[in-house]
Design brief:
The chain is built from nine helices and 21 strands. With 404 residues, the protein is an alpha+beta fold. The chain has a six-stranded antiparallel β-barrel. A six-stranded mixed sheet has the order 16-17-18-19-21-20, sandwiched between helices. Strands 9-10-15-14 form a four-stranded antiparallel sheet. α8 crosses α9. The longest helix has 36 residues. It is elongated and about 100 Å long.
Length: 404
């Protein structure tokens, strides 16, 4: 059995203990001590890191009454030897801030709307809280944040103690009654929240610094909140403030005017986009007319436009083809595009009765490609860009054989 020192003192950074067992976990060396300040993964909170006799602790797991410390390498000390353990304090204190912050936020949600916390996860970058609420508005999230941070600013004392027995638990009026029985550890935020919890917490709410809800989303019948506390919240504020300051400087405006400025820029972009689209439409129409005027004639009535595009936008080429066959009733278009392989596009005016679909299937063999489409508009794609000219030449020589 391992005595859990963090239950009595979450601020204990260094301790001495005896080695009870030396074992292997998935081929990695591990030890069980008679007592430890290392917290194992439990209750949504990750394990502590640190060293035992300067050997890094890579994971801490709970197995019954024992806490197993998985190590980077084997300890030289023998069984019953005394060893020194040191906790990674920065990681521990971060976990204390996040976990107590969760208690405060859960307490705020319960106080405001009687909303129950379903689950909690303390992640490396953000924490998540699943709550039994179908919707959460911006105003409600802000109100929950305000309530939680008021508790932090009050710097209320936080007590940790054990109780035992069903009657004692009922008397305490816990926010959520635990499923386990026996000796239960209680975390009490003075005049605000009572919860059963085995995690590590700060001695006073002020040490949490602040709580910030960063986002939330619906998950089935629950809402999942993402939040950060303490140094994480400060780091988040720092980089966001720097980003806003840099953008404001580049736009030569006050940071308070940034929202309006972005709205104006988006509106201007929308207008420019519309103008650009109109300009491209006109340019495409001009290009379509130019290609028709410069096309070669076949039997004094059919105009043939035969062209290969280098590294062009295929979608724009398709739009150009559509414009050409809409502008003239007696035109055949044979286009190739060398962009990301080989593409060919055959089309004819609706008044002409040629089957471009069948024609492109035959011509597609020259580019080792496949394709198809409608009788007056078909396309194919293949691997052999060097076969595009042969495909177009085949179509030019044989299109009259593909009459509907």
């Amino acid at each position: 059995m391992t005595k859990r020192l963090y239950y009595q003192d979450s601020y204990l950074k260094e301790f001495k203990a005896k080695v009870l067992k030396k074992i292997k976990i998935d081929n990695q060396p591990a030890v069980v001590l008679d007592e430890t300040a290392f917290y194992p993964t439990s209750g949504g909170q990750p394990y502590d890191k640190g060293v035992i006799q300067d050997v890094p602790v890579v994971e801490v797991v709970e197995e019954g009454d024992e806490i197993i410390h998985i190590l980077k390498e084997e300890l030289k000390e023998k069984i019953i030897s005394e060893v020194v353990g040191k906790i990674d304090w920065e990681r521990r204190f971060d976990h204390m801030q996040q976990h107590l912050g969760q208690h405060i936020l859960s307490g705020a949600l319960m106080e405001l709307w009687s909303v129950e916390t379903v689950s909690f996860h303390l992640g490396e970058e953000v924490c998540t809280l699943d709550i039994a609420k179908e919707k959460l508005s911006e105003e409600e999230a802000k109100k929950a944040e305000e309530c939680a941070n008021e508790i932090i600013f009050d710097n209320r004392p936080v007590k940790c103690y054990f109780v035992e027995g069903e009657e004692e638990l009922k008397r305490l009026n816990l926010r959520k009654v635990p499923e386990k029985t026996g000796k239960i550890r209680i975390i009490e935020v003075e005049d605000f929240d009572l919860s059963a919890c085995g995690g590590t917490h700060c001695r006073a709410t002020g040490e949490v610094g602040m709580i910030k809800i960063t986002k939330w989303e619906k998950r089935g019948e629950k809402i999942r909140l993402e939040f950060i506390c303490g140094r994480r919240a400060w780091k988040d504020y720092f980089w966001k403030n720097e980003a806003i300051k840099n953008i404001s400087n580049k736009l030569t405006i006050k940071d308070s005017e940034l929202g309006e400025a972005i709205d104006r820029m988006l509106e201007d972009r929308k207008e420019i986009g519309k103008e650009l689209k109109e300009f491209k439409e006109k340019l495409q129409e001009y290009e379509a007319k130019r290609l028709i005027d410069e096309s070669s004639l076949r039997d004094s009535r059919i105009k043939i436009i035969n062209k290969v595009f280098e590294e062009d936008n295929f979608q724009e080429v398709k739009e150009l083809v559509q414009k050409i066959i809409n502008l003239d009733e007696s035109v055949i278009v044979l286009f190739g595009v060398k962009s990301g392989g080989a593409k060919i596009l055959f089309a004819c005016s609706r008044a002409l009765k040629y089957d471009m679909n069948r024609l492109i299937r035959e011509a597609g063999k020259f580019i080792e490609g496949r394709g198809g489409g409608a009788p007056n508009f078909a396309q194919a794609g293949g691997k052999r860009a060097e076969g595009i000219e042969d495909a177009l030449n085949y179509a030019l020589e044989h299109f009259q054989e593909f009459i509907i």
